[in-house]
Amino acid sequence: MDLTLDGVGTRLGGRWVVDGIDATPPAGHLTGLLGPNGAGKTTLLRLVAGLLPPEKGAVLIDDAPVHELPRRSRARRVALLEQESTSTVPLTVHEVVSLGRIPYRSLWGTDPDATAVDRALVSAQAGHLADRPWSSLSGGERQRVQIARALAQEPELLLLDEPTNHLDVSAQLSLLAFVRDLGTTTVAALHDLNLAAAFCEHVLVLADGHLAAAGHPREVLTPELLRRVYGVEADILQHPRTGRPVIAFHEPTRDA
Amino acid sequence: MPRTRPYLLTAVAALTLVACSPQSSPEAAPAETTSATFAPVTVDNCGTEVEVTAPPTKVVTIKSTATEMLLALGLQDAMIGTAFADGPVPEQYEAASAQIPVVSEKVPGQEALLGLAPDFVYAGWESNFSADGAGDRAVLHDLGITTYVSPAACKEAGYMPDPLTFDEVADEIREVAAIFGVPERAEELVAEQQATLAAVQQPADETTALWYSSGTDSPYVGAGIGAPQMIMDAAGLTNIFADVHDSWTSTGWEQVVAADPDVIVLVDAAWNTAEKKIGLLESNPATSQLTAVQEKRYLVVPFAAGEAGVRNADAVASLSDQLAELG
Amino acid sequence: MRARTPLPLLVLAGLAALVVTVLVAVTIGPADLGVAEVARSIAGHLRLPVDGVPRLHDAIVWDLRLPRVLTAAAVGAGLALAGAVMQSLTRNPLADPYLLGLSSGASLGAVAVLVVGVSLLLPVAAFAGALLALVATLALARSGSTLSPGRTVLAGLAVSQMAAAATSFVIFWSSTGDSYREILNWLLGSLAGATWTSVAIAGVAVVVVGTVLVLSATRLDAFAFGDTSAAALGIDVDRTRWTLMTVVALLTGAMVAVSGAIGFVGLILPHAVSSLTGPAHRRLLPVAALSGGVFLIWADTLARTVFDPRELPVGIVTALIGVPVFAFLLRRGKGSAWT
């Protein structure tokens, strides 16, 4: 599957929050979507998911504009995990994951692939949670179950909005490792630059709705870019075991 | 006639002469008559103490029963306004009421009432005196306005007539007459009513009746202790809801159909005519099966005659006549 | 869904309970009729070869009790469906046609045409009233693109009070005498006026709208995590919401046209039933509808018999039963999801 962002942009409240992004996240790999708060990460994810029609340019999946795909078939190809997943409905984990099968259900609500939910639960390592009430899960467990829900959609493209928010360190690491090893084309908006540097094959850095840089973290995450985009000083070190970049931030200067 | 007590007959004869005098010299009459026989009155009216030290001269009445009570006592010259008429006044009061301004078609608001500067307000229902109606009784009292409610309409335990009788109606006539200093007119009126009632022919066989006041989905009917019961009793009708301890009650059509009354008394009001009620009874598939509906055995009573007041006796006579016509 | 009772079994049990309830309720009433007589009356109308019953007893069974019981069944089912669907579409466990002002809006529409005197338009006006109230509530509740449960309930309360006040005003302004009792019937709900026409209006509305809703069960499921999540699952969020809300307004209009604004059925039944069926709408909706029918028949049987020969508006009974049940459900810990 080829994903292409072709000069895509849109306005919210009159302002161009995403403005002419060109990018080609590598197929089958994890791409990190970086940038300070308000840079347009969530809006770009919604554009890529086809939930928001672009005002200029397009997002192409295998050369077809994603927002023009029929809704159901799009939902079978693209899955989106929102930043916050809350529900007032007393669902069990199994029921949450079955929501991912909605694009496949018949008019009478039957799923042509009866084992899909269980497979998704197992592959997200959430099989043991199946009968638990959703409301009783920890933050890490909830993200895992939401991933299972997304996997139940059997997507070619997985979009994650801040998936590591509210997770403890071990849950952050295992979640990103899991997503990286899925082999599905994935774009994840990430807050933590070190996590992005450690797990992403490719990063897109947004600043004010524009694409500031794109490429492998080693090439993109330079002290100069961090200064320009985030307004911080940092040294880039090398991870002693993986060889990946590690960002060591400086203390802010007093007059900064 | 044989049941009329002799001393009342005498009273009627004597008072007829007195009652005729205002007609001959209307401009001076009220002052003359009232000053002659007025004595200060204090009554416990539905739990409110009402003290009258001089006959009221600027009276507003609310509801037909109150208006007609004063007209029947020939007190139209003391009336400065009427409100909330349930229907036209009976023919014999038409001339007297024509000159009295109609304040409001419904309950007048407190300000509208105060604007008339009345010294006495006479209401047919207790609920007419409320902050969102004509005003609270205590508030009006502080403003120097005497309030009076038809005693038969009191709702408080101990004040609510249980059951209402023609003696209580007569008591109200006498009480109102005393307030206005015209006791002799009360005796005349009471005697007239007694005579009317005495002349009523009772039906030969037991005749069951429904007093249908209003309501479409849930009929609102005359129950066991109020004016409807009193009137039906006197006309020799057996109320099918006589065992409900209330003046009126809301009930269901099932109870009515189960009882299948011999006749139906229809209350005729401007906003809900007897004609409309007949239409409802005939179009409802269940009530259309009632014997009284199929045989069109209806009796009609004007709304204002169906609440405790001076028209009850005539209502009894009218029901009795209508019943006789039905055969 | 694991270890949940199979849907066909639940529906069969619900249908059986409904049929038994109808048959029992029709033998209960202020008039003293025997079970055999009631059965013969109904059988006679179904053209079965049985001995006739006295004309008036037949009228009580066939023209008063049966249409009333069947109307109660249809209205109860309709209100439960409407409640369940509104709770899902607004993501608000407190949503129901009564709380969000639809019922009051429908009452206002109904009363307004009654005053004008064109009672043929009554169901249409009730529908229009419900729809207007719905639009007003959602417009008031919406801040930006989100629809918070708290704001929705507050907006519903405002709209419902407004519509109730307008209804009272219309009646106050247009009538004299003791017509306040008619106001009560519209505001509190009553099935006392049920006829075979009511059965037809409410019954057709429930069957038609119920079918549409059950066929929309999957789309309703998709709203569990909100609009964006539903859109990502391939649902046309705006169209689905407005279509189904309009359908619910239609259903509410039909219910109110025959019975006034009966509260708490739509609020309580979906919650009470979901512990049995789970939240999946394909299971929840049919079972909620059947239980709503059973519930309202019993509530109305109480309303017409407990204070014989007087009658209570059935809305008082549903509130008296509904509020404690609601309190129980809240306290049972389900409240944690109801922030």
TrEMBL record, chain A:
Keywords: ATP-binding, Nucleotide-binding, Translocase, Transport. Signal peptide: none annotated. Residues 3-233 form the ABC transporter domain. GO terms for molecular function: ATP binding; ATP hydrolysis activity. InterPro entries: AAA+_ATPase, ABC_transporter-like_ATP-bd, ABC_transporter-like_CS, ABC_trnsptr_F420-0_ATP-bd_pred, P-loop_NTPase. It holds the Pfam family ABC_tran. PANTHER family: HEMIN IMPORT ATP-BINDING PROTEIN HMUV (PTHR42794:SF1). This is ABC transporter ATP-binding protein. It comes from Cellulomonas xylanilytica.
UniProtKB/TrEMBL annotation, chain B:
It holds the Pfam family Peripla_BP_2. PROSITE patterns: FE_B12_PBP, PROKAR_LIPOPROTEIN. The keyword Signal applies. SUPFAM superfamilies: Helical backbone' metal receptor. InterPro entries: ABC_Transporter_SBP, ABC_transptr_periplasmic_BD, ABC_trnsptr_F420-0_sub-bd_pred. The keyword 4Fe-4S does not apply. Residues 1-24 form the signal peptide. This is ABC transporter substrate-binding protein. It comes from Cellulomonas xylanilytica. The lineage of its organism: Bacteria, Bacillati, Actinomycetota, Actinomycetes, Micrococcales.
Automatic annotation (TrEMBL), chain C:
The chain crosses the membrane at residues 66-86, 98-118, 124-141, 153-173, 193-215, 247-272, 284-303, 312-330. GO terms for molecular function: transmembrane transporter activity. GO terms for cellular component: plasma membrane. The keyword Membrane applies. InterPro entries: ABC_BtuC-like, ABC_transptr_permease_BtuC, ABC_transptr_permease_F420-0. Keywords: Cell membrane, Membrane, Transmembrane, Transmembrane helix, Transport. The keyword Transport applies. It is found in: Cell membrane. GO terms for biological process: siderophore-iron import into cell. It is a multi-pass membrane protein. Belongs to the binding-protein-dependent transport system permease family. FecCD subfamily. NCBIfam families: F420-0_ABCperm. This is ABC transporter permease. The lineage of its organism: Bacteria, Bacillati, Actinomycetota, Actinomycetes, Micrococcales.
